[in-house]
Amino acid sequence: MRLLLIALALVAIQDAKTEWATRWVKLVERAADEHSKLGEYLEMQRMHQWARLEFERAVTDDPEHAYARKQLGHSKGESGAWGPDPRAKVESENKKTGEDAKKVETEYRRRLEKSLKPLAASFVDLGNWAKSQGLDAESKQAYGKALDIDPDQAQAREALGFTKEAGRWTSGWDKLMRADFKDGIVKAPAGVEESATTAVESALGVSHLKRKSGRFLAESPYLTQGQITKCIQVAEHSVEMYKKLFSLFEDPIPAAKLPMNHILFQTREQHEAYIEKFDKRSDEIKKQVKAMSASTTADPPKGECWQGSRVEAFVYDFVIHSTVHTLSSWHIKGSRSWLREGMAYYFTRLMNDTAMVYCVRFEGTKTEGGKSMNDPNNWPAIVREWMRSGGDPDIHSVIKVSLNDLTAQRTIKAWSLIDFMFAENRGRWIEFHKELAADPKDTGEKAFLKVFQWSLEDLDARWRDFARRAY
Fold first, then answer.
1. Which residues make Cβ contacts (< 8 Å) with residue 105, sequence separation at least 6?
2. Domains in the chain and their CATH numbers?
3. How many CA atoms lie within 13 A of 359 on its CB side?
4. Which of 25, 150, 266, 320 could form a cystine bridge with 120, CB 3.0-4.6 A?
5. How far, CA to CA in Å, does 230 sit from each of 186, 222, 254?
6. Cα separation of 460 and 396, whole Å?
7. Which letter, b or e, does each residue of 362-387 get, where b requires 16 or more Cβ atoms within 10 Å of its Cβ?
């Protein structure tokens, strides 16, 4: 009898899975049709870039959607597979701007509400049914699809463990992580006092207070042991939080490259003397670096700054920033400026409530609303203002530029992109980093397409949806 009951239960589960698959296919085909209709409206309004995003979403849901394929310039080859049609002429630029574009966007948003919100609710119903049948993985897939269509779908959010705080949906994991960024600092390894003379002391003929942990050596001619201890702790905690965010079992920086050396000077003169002794590049580059507030290298992992008249928090901001810089460089096997800077500011904002270091000049930079950009607590308001005015930097100018061209505005958008990825796409964000590590020449455009099936324009559109809700 027991074996019979088990057999009947297995049959029931299989029947439920078959029904779920049938209902799932019908809903995703319906989703493809709705996206295609939205794309058709936008094409008629000559908003070709926006239309293309909707047609791409249609094809993601239903790869055989013939109308969306045709609008994207695709045709079927002899093998029966879809591919670019070299004869097709596809417009890809929006033809309306200013008030005309805003009118189209208003109507577009109205149509989105009318067509996609009920569709998201249908996926929630499917998720609820799957859950009642004991199909937990399938129910989560349906809830996830509901959020893909309508990121503010309350029932799907709650089913997946989100709560709404200050107008923003937050997962249980996200809340724990945000608390962990600050609370874990005092629990991090503090290291021990170091007595051996360092290479910097020998070269400059000075004496430093020093402290060493398993991963870091911090030294300074003016900080107290208590302050150096905190430098060690924020650096150690940065590593642990980085590993936790990306589910890493090993440190990104190889053990053979450690300890990472943080050299913390008081004056510009000390900084210049250090650059003169240790920077092996040309005199012209050394002149430029001497004018900066800090220097850093990933191999060997080393960071150096001078505090001057800046507040004490600057020193800890620098240690976090340079540590995360180095972790990111080793993790993705190279330097993508938007990602490296965005990650560093993501950490300093959550751990230290600051954004004070040297890579991008924020000082004195204000938005039209008067918000200072060098205070990271203003960044959500700055992004919110962008959503109203459309004044945010072009996504290509964020992802593809070098560090020298990464302005304050571009860096804030990079920070917000990373906030978006960790908040709503952490699993695929981890896969994205693996793709970057495999292709050092990719700024991120190829990896977004491969892992998310998003063009940069699609990334931008999804980020905007998040920004409107989150900030």
1. none
2. 2-77+92-160 (1.20.1260), 180-470 (1.10.390)
3. 26
4. 150
5. 8, 14, 23
6. 9
7. beeeebeeebebbbbebbbebbbbbe
Least confident of 55-59, 189-193, 275-279, 432-436: 55-59
**What are the residues whose beta carbons fall under 8 Å from the beta carbon of 468, sequence distance 6 or more?**
387
Phi, psi values for residue 216, rounded to 5°: -135, 150
Residue 467 in this model has a pLDDT that exceeds 90: no
Residue, of 238 and 1, whose pLDDT is higher: 238
Residue 171 has pLDDT above 70, yes or no: yes
**Overall average pLDDT of the 225-251 stretch:** 97
Q: How far apart, in whole angstroms, are the C-alpha atoms of residue 66 and residue 383?
A: 38
The DSSP symbol for 311 reads -
Q: Which two tokens stand for residue 141?
A: 């897939």
> Got the DSSP string for 394-462?
PHHHHHS--GGG--HHHHHHHHHHHHHHHHH-HHHHHHHHHHHHH-TT--SHHHIIIII---HHHHHHH
Of 128, 129, 273, 145, the residue nearest 200 (C-alpha): 273
The pair of three-digit structure tokens given for residue 349, joined into one six-digit string: 């904002």
pLDDT digits (tens, 9 = 90+) for 194-227: 999 999 999 999 999 999 999 999 999 999 999 9
| pTM confidence score | 0.75
176, with CB counted inside 10 A (0-12, 13-18, 19+), is exposed
Please write the tens of the pLDDT for every residue from 305-360: 999 999 999 999 999 999 999 999 999 998 899 999 999 999 999 999 998 875 55
Strand order in the sheet with 209-212: 192-193, 209-212, 216-220, 260-265, 301-306, 294-298
Query: What DSSP string describes 58-101?
Result: HHHH-TT-HHHHHHTTEEE-TTS-EEE-TT-----SB---HHHH
Angle at 27 between CA 10 and CA 417, to 5 degrees: 105
| Cis before 254 (ω within 30) | no
Other C-beta atoms closer than 10 Å to the C-beta of 256 total 5
Q: How confident is the model at residue 371 (pLDDT cuts 50, 70, 90)?
A: low
The dihedrals phi and psi of 350, each to the nearest 5 degrees, come to -75, -35
Contacts of 74 (CB under 8 A, 6+ apart): 82, 83, 84, 85, 88
Going by C-alpha positions, the residue among 60, 117, 96 that lies closest to residue 452 is: 60
